[in-house]
Amino acid sequence: MSEHDHQVSLFDWRDHIGVREFPELEWMFAIPNGGHRKISVATRLKREGVKAGVLDVLIPIPRGGYIGMWIEMKFGKNKLTKEQAAFMEKMR
To answer: Which of 52, 64, 68, 77 is an S-S bond match for 60, by CB 3.0 to 4.6 Å?
Structure first.
């Protein structure tokens, strides 16, 4: 298993089970920030607004005074990056 596998499983669950009980999960989406890319692709994405540290998944539905919920997928011994920790703090 990997972080990728866990994230795929989350969206499979959402698509097949989760939306039946929580229809608003239809709006949950992934943020494609991570991964290894060619320099030309990374440069293009950065120019388009991709930002280091943004968490993996967003559920943009207001609940209980909050605007949405961010999810950061981690697997094994992976830890938050400095940018992810700063992003989480700002989102609080």
So the answer is: 68
